[in-house]
Design a protein that fits this description.
Mean pLDDT: 97
Shape: globular
Radius of gyration: 22 Å
Structural class: alpha+beta
CATH class of the largest domain: Alpha Beta
Helix content: 10-25%
CATH architecture of the largest domain: Alpha-Beta Complex
Number of strands: 26
Amino acid sequence: MGLKSFLEVKSDSHFPLENLPFGVFKPESGSDARPGVAIGGYVADLSVIAAAGLFDGPCLRNSDCFTQPNLNKFLHLGRPAWKEARETLQKLLSATEPKLRDNASLRQKALIPMDKVEMVLPIAIGDYTDFFSSMHHAKNCGTIFRGPENPINRNWFHLPIAYHGRASSIVVSGTDIIRPRGQASPTGDSAAYFGPSRKLDFELEMAAVVGPGNELGKSVSIDEARDHIFGLVLMNDWSARDIQAWEYVPLGPFLGKSFGTTVSPWIVTLDALEPFSCDAPKQDPPPLPYLAEKISKNYDISLEVLIKPAGQEDSCTVTRSNFKHLYWTVTQQLAHHTVNGCNLRPGDLLGTGTISGPEPESYGCLLELTWNGQKPLSLGGVTRTFLEDGDEVTFTGYCKGDGYNIGFGTCSGKILPSP
């Protein structure tokens, strides 16, 4: 069974004592943002806990990282500080530790009901890169656009393919997404048109949050890559498929992707996910030495996508997938990103790309689920090929432990009409 907190934590909670994901919140509208951790139905205010002198370990004793409006300074401190913070908080919030439990005044200041706070982006994101690391997704997309003869390009099996995304349009869960406008070519050789996207899609992804960066010109080895990743978030990399299909040759995604990307507010640390590590898929051909891992692992994270159609009261589950399906691991992604000397910085975000499984019900986007609009989905009395105005999409994800869950909460957004 799991650890026990002095706070009541329901058995189906995403945020037990074993998790303690980090985020940034405002206690009330208009107040200053500050770091916190989720515990059951509460947010623990790390600025209050730090001011009380309860972070007394060598890494955090003299640090002001928990008085900042984002987590970047904490991320920069690296794994020893992350481990120290998590172990300190697990002790303070446990049923057997009196320092917080028995101090009514401090407890009232430090623990705020989660339904009272406003969550904001937990990091200042300087750069954002999106990978293409699910073999099932790559095969399906290639089949749709190029046919089944050679759906995956040869280079895909040799390196983690990626493109640089737009950090400025990354938003926190709950933010509405305005339908983008752009150019598209509806069929064959017909003339291009301009207007609101007719093929707006979600993409079920997760993203790695970079901790300590690397100097320009110096790469991060595959053996050290894990120490440069703080944790993971859920991510919806919304996509305008018609705009994307017209523009992506020869330089790749641009306006079809850059209008909005949604992330969950809580970052689950790799330490919390460690008990759920599992073997990554066998890579054939074997990767080059700089990508060859002594132990290549993913995490067993169950993922689900729900759509609440406009005008409907209920949501329908359209996808059940799992993080373990990724062909290229997040550590391989980071090592490859830096092998040319590219310098990553604390708070950079590395998206996994759409996470599709082998079965149709595990496909990670509407492009695959409806086979580019050819097979409409039934959603509680209405059908969809792509998203319509007013539709709301919600991702959720968790690892199932013995009597507890390690969860990510939700990542949601609603589509608003193009102006």
